[in-house]
Design goal:
This protein has 32 helices and 13 strands. The chain has about 750 residues and is α+β, with helices and mostly antiparallel strands. The strands form four sheets. The chain has a five-stranded antiparallel β-sheet, with no helix packed on it.
Length: about 750
């Protein structure tokens, strides 16, 4: 395939690949051609190349080397290049990467552009990947655009303001006046954005509720206009006028009417009108009715209105759509405690649902194994689409079923080696293997066909998760923790585990690096405590942190409720777990007595409790600073010293850092470092930290060099130093034939 092929031709060739290896070969050749063209100063096909790279990224292959090209295209004056640059930024950049900060000024300039389309690109990008720093810098610009005369810009500015409020809740006060004024707009897109913004402001800061409750009559009137309006082709969905906006308004009314009589009274008539006039034969109408029911049951509504809401749910039980029957059953389970009589009228229909072929409609689990198998089947089929709480809920279910630990770990291991695309499944599998890996290695399981698994097989599977480009940072964290836990459950591969943990001590992902450094400390300084720290997790109390595990019979905590007074109570953890945990590190103290004034005392003890346990606990992860990489002095002349250290090294690459210092009485200026390597080695020099080296060792200049090679034996480097010392221009040459090992090797 020629490097200059168009995007359509590249897609055709990739789709025509017969094997995954052939596909990888095509993509590697194309990426190499794209890299080469990115290096050219005057490249008219930049947007063309970045578009191809974005397609490669969509297929799951690395495309990070296109980040700086996104920055260049965003700064372009051409709309066609700016558009693909912003698209690339939204796909390849996120708030954790420094490159995202480079586009802040470009976004600010484009927010003031004369073209609404350029302004729209900047707004969409900021709303998609704007970091807290970017949001703080650009918030005044967004507040200005909320007052613009162009509805197209206002609706996008409103959604951008929502992102800013989520990132920095304290900036919400800046958008409060504008959010209220947007409710007078006629454009549905602006209204939709305004309602979402007000909802976010109320949820983030309950103090805003009082101010926005004044807008309830205005919201009610907007909703009435939607319900009573005639046919509008622009907003009609299956006979319902803009159901998306209706649902958003109902959710906002639910928040404003909760625990407030005046606001609830103002919306009672509207809710009755929506409940009686909305057609439920289509999905759009059912969605509006369902939100209406939730609003009626959550505000201080009239009793007749609540009966009407229950009757709507009863009609839902007769619907042919199983999804609608499911949400109806879930809602009725929450209502039955407060409106038992109204629900009782539909008892016959509810009993008939026990005969439904869909197990989720029954809400009946014949056994824990059936429950686990069903959820695992969902994860295998569509693990990428489940909610985030599914993973901790399934883990809790597995820990509680102690007799199924062997069965579950075998089943999850088989699923893991078959497919690592579904990240929720990968996370549960890694956790389970880390906890019950010893049961997996025994190969004895009555509930499932036995499978002989070696220690190397298990570690290979977990390392595959760590190295896969499809794994999310969260999945990698699960895998690294599982590998660490296996160090106390296996016997022959502890050195391999120690090596893996050490390697990730220099990982670019900060979270993963921190875990690895802490685990490495357990191997070294706290090896005598490793077995106790990494023992199996106790059974999780499902209500200990407000989790209901998807059980609708457990009422979740209502928002904005006032806490109940705390009575004096002795905190008794199950099996005295708190004291047992502290006892791992020393003598444990008795349970604390919490009194009404929120002070804590320990029975039969003085106020001067021993601090040894606390100090030991806090020092558990102390001394975790990574060992500095060894450095060697490669040049020293006239007070100028140049040191070299290898920060990271693999079989095909090495990261080298040069550090220059000055021990003379005057500053060294114009410091410049150039390097040359053999043809078999590729060299990439990062920008230096400066060109002035302060006198008397008061500072240094550093420069990082990335070396890529196929044969490490040919790794050599020649460095040329140029600088001015005491007004004299100097130039020296250094030959480097060997490199020190990094700290982790």
């Amino acid at each position: 395939m020629s490097p200059s092929v168009c995007l359509q031709e590249m897609i055709r060739v990739i789709r025509g690949a017969r094997t995954q290896g052939e596909e990888r070969g095509v993509i590697q050749r194309e990426c190499a051609a794209i890299r080469a063209q990115f290096r050219q100063a005057d490249n008219g096909g930049r947007s063309h190349n970045l578009a191809k790279l974005l397609y490669v990224h969509m297929l799951g292959y690395p495309a990070h080397f296109g980040q700086m090209e996104c920055v260049r295209l965003i700064a372009s004056s051409k709309y066609s290049e700016k558009r693909i640059g912003y698209l690339g930024a939204m796909m390849l950049l996120d708030e954790k990467q420094d490159a995202s900060l480079l586009i802040t000024n470009s976004i600010k300039n484009d927010l003031s552009h004369s073209s609404q389309h350029v302004q729209s690109l900047a707004l969409c990008t900021l709303a998609c990947m704007g970091s807290a720093e970017m949001c703080r810098d650009l918030a005044p610009e967004i507040e200005r655009l909320l007052k613009a005369s162009n509805s197209y810009i206002k609706k996008k500015a409103a959604l951008c303001a929502v992102h800013i409020v989520r990132k920095i809740p304290e900036l919400g006060e800046m958008f409060t006046p504008s959010a209220h004024s947007l409710l007078s707009e006629k454009n549905h897109g602006v209204l939709h954005g305004a309602v979402i913004l007000i909802t976010e402001l109320c949820e983030r800061n309950p103090d805003n509720l009082k101010q926005f409750r004044k807008s309830v009559p205005e919201l009610v009137q907007i909703m009435k206009n939607l319900v009573t309006s005639g046919y509008s082709p622009e907003h009609n969905v299956a006979g319902i006028s803009d159901p998306f906006l209706q649902v958003r308004i109902l959710r906002l009314l639910r928040i404003l009417g909760r625990n407030n009589d005046a606001a609830s009274d103002a919306m009672n008539d509207l809710l009755a009108q929506v409940a009686t006039n909305t057609d439920s034969s289509k999905t759009a109408g059912s969605a509006v009715l369902y939100e209406t029911v939730l609003t009626i049951m959550d505000i201080r509504s009239e009793s007749g209105l609540r009966v009407l809401a229950v009757n709507i749910l009863g009609r839902f039980l007769l619907n042919n759509d199983r999804n609608i029957r499911y949400i109806s059953m879930t809602s009725l389970q929450k209502i039955v405690q407060t409106d038992h009589t109204a629900v009782q009228r539909h008892r016959g229909t509810i009993v008939d649902c026990l005969k439904d072929q869909d197990a989720s409609v029954k809400r009946y689990a014949p056994s824990q194994r059936w429950h686990i198998d069903t959820i695992l089947h969902v994860l295998v089929t569509a693990g990428g689409d489940v909610r985030d709480e599914t993973v901790p809920n399934l883990i809790q279910l597995i820990t509680a079923a102690s007799e199924l630990h062997c069965y579950t770990v075998h089943k999850l291991y088989r699923a893991l080696i078959s497919d690592i695309v579904q990240q929720s499944l990968v996370q549960v599998a890694c956790w389970c293997i880390g906890e019950y890996g010893d049961l997996l290695l025994k190969g004895e399981c009555e509930e499932i066909t036995p499978m002989q698994v070696t220690e190397d097989d298990v570690l290979d599977a977990l390392e595959t998760v760590l190295q896969s480009h499809m794994s999310t940072p969260t999945s990698r964290g699960f895998a690294l923790t599982a590998i660490m836990k296996l160090s106390t459950r296996i016997t022959n591969n502890v050195d391999r585990i120690r090596s893996v943990v050490s390697i990730y001590g220099s990982c670019i992902d900060v979270e993963l690096q921190q875990r690895a450094v802490e685990y490495n400390a357990l191997f070294k300084k706290y090896d005598h405590m490793r077995a106790a720290v990494l023992e199996r997790m106790p059974v999780i109390d499902r209500n200990s942190s407000g989790q209901t595990n998807g059980d609708p019979s457990v009422e979740p905590m209502k928002e904005f409720n006032q806490p109940k007074p705390v009575q004096g109570v002795l905190i008794q953890e199950p099996a005295n777990q708190v004291c047992d945990l502290l006892d791992l590190l020393g003598d444990s103290n008795p349970p604390l007595l919490v009194t009404n004034d929120h002070t804590s005392t320990a029975p039969n003890s003085t106020n001067s409790t021993s601090s040894n346990v606390q100090d030991n606990l806090l020092d558990l992860l102390g001394g975790l600073e990574p060992t500095p990489a060894p450095s060697v002095t490669v040049f020293e002349k006239g007070g100028l010293s140049l040191k070299l250290q290898c920060d990271q090294q693999t079989e095909t690459s090495t990261t080298v850092t040069f550090t220059a210092s000055n021990s003379t009485q005057s500053d060294i200026t114009g410091f410049n470092l150039q390097a040359a390597v053999p043809k078999s080695v590729q060299l990439q020099m990062k920008a230096p930290s400066g060109d002035l080296i302060p006198a008397q060792g008061c500072g240094t200049v550093t420069q990082t060099v990335l070396l890529s090679y196929t044969n490490k034996a040919n790794l050599k480097m020649r460095v040329r130093l140029s600088y001015s010392s005491q007004g004299t221009a100097c130039q020296d040459m250094v030959q480097i034939d060997s490199f020190p090992s990094p700290a982790w090797s």
